[in-house]
Give the backbone structure.
Amino acid sequence: MLDRTRLLSALAPHRWVLEPAVAVVLFVAWLFSGLPTALSALALLFYCAAVALSRVLPGVALGIVWTALLLELTEPDPLPGAFRIIGAVAIFATVFGIAAHGGRVLRWFAFASACLIGPAMAYLFTVKGELKFLQFGPVIGGYYASQGVGLLLMSLLMIVAFLIGWLLGYLVARQRAFASAAGSPSAGDGQRGSVLVWLASSGGAVVAEGDPDRPRLVQRLSRGQLTFDMAGAAAFVVFCLFIDSADLFGSSRDGSRSGTIVLAVFTVAVALRRMSPAVALAFAWLAAVIQMTTGNSILASDLGVLLVLYATAAYGDRVVRWVGLVSAGLGALVAALYLSVTSALSQGYFDLLSTSLTSIALQFAFLFVVSATVLGLSWVLGLLMRTWREARFSRYAQTVAELDRNRAEEVVVVEQERTRIARDMHDVVAHSLAVVIAQADGARYARHTDPGAVDEALTTIAATARSALGDVRVLLAELRQSQPEGPQPSLDDVPQTIEHIRAAGLPVAFERLGRVDGLGSAQQIAGFRIVQEALTNALRHGDTSQPATVVLAAVAADAGGPGIVITVRNTMKHLPADELSTGTVPRIGHGLPGMRERASLAGGTLSAGPVDGVFVVSAFLPAGGAA
């Protein structure tokens, strides 16, 4: 199967051939329609030249179009309808090319030209062409009133047709500019762009998917969406054939043919309504123009207008959405005018124009209000669907963001827990090793004078190491699962830690004043670790010949509590004279920041420092909900 991307890449350098190819097709169609007079032939050649140059020389193409139009206006003989249609198609293609490839100023010149060329083409179709209106009513300036109304309606239809071509070109230029600003690669880089945009502009513009109002002439649909749209278009055809069977198969041959063409064009618009709302809107206007210029009444296929207006609001970007709203208002005006004229014509009102103006005006106002309501309601329903879809996407994005936030919070909590466990691990290992080192040194010095002390020291070392191993296992269990397997240390374990310190060679006096029943687990663990770290520092860096003191004092509510105050004092080592002269304080260890953080996390405070040769650690931990 041929790869579309590779095919587009191969054709990319030859995109300029597109407009000349369209010009050749129009020229061949003119040849098959029969050669008119020499002056009109020259006008047709100018039309084809304007189409061929609309990409490479858009300014020259606009001037050639006006030249060809002036040649047509100076032609004295009436021309066949086929020639007029070829000229109108050439103007549509030229306006599209200028809007797609011209500069900003030239693009708006093309817009103004479309508005002026429309009435001129309507004049060529009606007054100087084969499309004639019935002549009745009062004569004004040599023309019947019916001819003036018909010319006005035809001018409005031609202006709309040319402006649709300009709008499509403008959307192509807008998407190309957006793709260039975003630095999107071309189709040759393996990116898939819409064929329409590639043919008309940039070789496959790729746009960001996150912006709902991004310029997009053609949207990518999934296979399911494309199948649904095609099936919907087929159902639309069946429904219209069933409703309009009498009009399509029971009327005249010309009416049946024009009604079938209108149905076919509306079917294409319905099929493309979601893939390309702008192109679908262009086809809908084309079908409406064909329907009104061929004199058809209201058909079931006109429901396609409602579907297309719904799609412009529901699926189009910002420009297409507001163009759909303008089309709803303009379509209501054109439909009301057309229905009023045809109704008056069928009832012979123009024969009594002076007495029927009021009824025709009231009928026009009523039809305009009804048409504007129906068309506007379809557009509003599409806008509501778009709002609902964007709100649903917003809720989904919010849910995803909340899930990401929860995951991030979980990661932070896990990391904080790991940090806490690592701190506990440090405290356990540091305390146990300090006791083991002190016992080992004492046993080594006392083995000659007191052999019994060696056995006691080894017993203490074994007990301390065994206890530390148990604590490490508990901490490792916390790393593996959310809940630890063993009990956490508490203030009730402080006496056991004090016994270990005493056995290591530091006398400790312990005193407990009062009892705090509402102390939480976080405060219990923090208090135990603070006492353990303070005594370990005293054993390492303090004067072990002087006793240390540990006081756990309950604090009442009226004294700033409830809570507990932990006070650990130990005598500092004698400082050399040089250190005293510099005012330096001996290094106490690495546990002080950890103790302060533990007290802070438990909702309390901690202070530590030397006071008159004594190092004092004082911490306050609140009880219960005070944290």
Remarks:
- Residues 184-210, 579-590 have pLDDT under 50 and may be disordered.
- The first helix runs from residue 4 to 11.
